[in-house]
Amino acid sequence: MPGLTDATRGRILFGGDYNPEQWPEEVWQEDVRLMKEAGVNSVTVGVFSWAELEPTPGAREFGWLDRLMDLMHENGIGVVLATPTASPPPWMGRLHPETLPRDEDGRIEWWGGRQHFAHSSAVYRRYAAAITEDLAARYGGHPALTMWHINNEYCTYDWGDEAATAFRRWLQGRYGTLDALNTAWGTAFWSQGYDDWEGILPPRHAHYMNNPTQVLDFKRFTSDALMECFVAERDIVARHTPNIPVTSNFMPFWQGQDAWAWAGREDVVSVDSYPDPRDPLGGQYGALIHDMTRSQARGGPWMVMEQAAGPVNWRGVNHPKPPGLNRLWSLQAVARGADAVCYFQWRQSRQGAEKFHSGMVSHAGERGRTFQEVKRIGAELALLSEKVADTRVTGADVAVLLDWNAWWASGQDGRLSGEVDYPAVVRAWHRALWEANVTASFAHPEHDLSAYKLVVLPQLYLLTDTAIDNLVAYVRGGGTVVSGFLTGVADQDDRVRQGGMDERLRKLFGIRTLHEWWPLDADEKVGVEGFRGTLWSEEIEAADEAYAVIPYKGGELDGLPAVLRKGRAWYLSTLPEPAALWPLLAGIAEDAGVRPALDHLPAGVEAVRRGELLFLLHHGRDTVTVPVPGRHRDLLTGEDVVDAVELGRYGAAVLEAAP
Ligand code: GAL
Fold first, then answer.
1. Which of 3, 316, 422, 550 is the most exposed, having the fewest neighbouring CB atoms within 10 Å of its CB?
2. Ligand 1 proximity of 152 Cβ (cutoff 6 Å)
3. Is 152 annotated as a binding residue?
4. Which atom of ligand 1 is nearest to the CA of 249?
5. Mutational pocket test of ligand 1: of 44, 49, 354, 356, the residue with most ligand atoms within 8 Å of the beta carbon
6. What SS3 state is found at 1?
7. Could you tell me if 142 and 84 are in contact, meaning their C-beta atoms sit under 8 angstroms apart?
């Protein structure tokens, strides 16, 4: 399988989405000059160029792309060439309305924006395959080509008729018989029993709550249907260029794609990373995105395909990045394993819906602060390239378990609390590890966990039998596990397990009876000895061999276990406030033999080890002194560091042990 090194030739990729079709060709010359000044070595081209390439059905306009590819090659800039299939030209919707997706109310998503393609439309797929084939045939041998980028952030749901047909086919593949489907979906409830496959629909707008397993399967199906589109295009380009790696960029924490399943089908995993510069925990969110993507790449290369050099334009209020933040977050991506740091987009647009979204070259041009910072980042990444090439993050001994099926099933109508948001719960637990300066990985609950010293389940409402057996075996084999509330409640069909929680898990954690769930209101806190819990609490009776490490204090659950422990298995029936979760988790991690990346870090400083390098990243604004025992050299400044390094606002150091 081709890897990223084939594309990077040993360099960290630095660059961004480049949309030359938005500019007169004189500007291209200017672009190249500035790219070289900034150390840009990679551009992603063609993401939304379908109407330029195929202005009328079947036509091909490759002239501009030929010139662009040549120009990039002449200037030593590699091209990640995108298939343009995320945004069909207007003629497609006009001539073939069935290529337009429908929402759950049956409304058409019209052209005029983007991503208006019906994933299961045969006509869409035919046109997508044809343009992909011709691009691959024409540019497969071009020396500028370094990688294929398929589509963009696959994200369309479709409740239309062709999607309904494909959904039925998918269900036949999963269940075989209608009886099996009726059983899995529990259709005895509310008179939903199906007598014919033709009667089954995507979960369209209904009078009252849809069948939850139908909704769950529709989400599974959507991820698979989009993946079919991806795989079809991937196979076309791979046939032409077996040695050129293929990627498709993820949105992190996007419901529509089961990233575990997708990542296994990509040569290089890539992600679009947009933490909010105003978020005081933006650095933590970035770390989570990197940890998640690195883990999805499962030891393989991965890249930040997009980030913003300044503001985005899709939040309520869009803030610029203060000086230094772009550099800090770029270095953080490298620290956490990225082999590419790229942006959306190279040059800020003057027209279109994203004209207020930043670019590496902002409206202020080359004298603007944004470009000046980009230049600095490019120069520093070039300094680091050789040292980080082919290295991996080390010391990530904790696995945070993450699963799309659990997310899909837990977030539905009819649940006990609308306040429990799965990504927010995962983020709270990752934050605790980040604050404890423990480098986390993510894993699927059915992965082999034996390499990890500690396994953390922020919440996995749905767990398959295989996953449960995996966890039990992990603890039996000497592993330590910590689980958050509302875990192991449902089986793969979203059927509640006997007793409200799987019996094997109740045994594992020492829970005799789970009497009731006690969800909390938005601002409500529950008293626990020594701290307060948020979001949720549970009325649990511990089994004899378990003990309540920390009881609830006051309220209805007074004296009952909030935190339970049985041997190496811990269960937290509430979500402790942040100030309590991290010391609790840090203590469990330490007992499990997990070491932080560096001891005695000042608050706000993140330490990560990649290969032989120690990255120090300061997310705060006040100057701090970080103790680093021994002699090191800071690769960014070339200076020696003896026993301590000082970091100013958003400062960073990349230390290598001095000989
Ligand atoms: C991404 C997308 C880009 C651009 C960017 C703006 O979701 O892939 O094309 O729209 O967001 O932040």
1. 316
2. yes
3. yes
4. 8
5. 354
6. coil
7. no
Compute and round to an integer the Cα radius of gyration of the chain: 26
Per the listing, tokens 């011709």 go with 134
pLDDT tens digit string along 423-479?
999 999 999 999 999 999 999 999 999 999 999 999 999 999 999 999 999 999 999
Would the CB of 538 count as within 6 Å of ligand 1?
no
Mutation probe of ligand 1 site: the residue of 17, 83, 272 with most atoms within 8 A of C-beta = 272
Q: Which of 52, 109, 162, 306 is catalytic?
A: 306
**Phi and psi angles of residue 108, each rounded to the nearest 5 degrees, phi first:** -80, 140
Is 153 one of the annotated active-site residues of the chain?
yes
Q: Which listed residue (54, 153, 373, 538) is catalytic?
A: 153
Residues with Cβ < 8 Å from 426, sequence gap 6 or more? Answer: 253, 288, 400, 402, 458, 459
**DSSP code string of 246-297:** EE-EEPTT-TTS-HHHHHTT-SSEEEE----TT-TTHHHHHHHHHHHHHHHT
Task: Please choose from 85, 153, 257 the residue to mutate so as to test ligand 1's pocket, defined by most ligand atoms within 8 A of CB.
Answer: 153
Q: Which domains occur in the chain, in start order?
A: 4-156+216-389 (3.20.20.80), 398-591 (3.40.50.880), 605-657 (2.60.40.1180)
149 lines ligand 1 (CB under 6 A): no
pTM of the model: 0.97
Residue with tokens 């059905």: 57
Write the residue with the smallest CA distance to atom 3 of ligand 1: 344
Over residues 567-625, the pLDDT tens digits come to 999 999 999 999 999 999 999 999 999 999 999 999 999 999 999 999 999 999 999 99
With CA atoms as reference, report the closest residue to 434 among 593, 601, 550. Answer: 601
529 included as an active-site residue = no
Q: 410 in helix, strand or coil?
A: helix
Considering only CA atoms, which of 78, 67, 87, 60 is closest in space to residue 244?
78
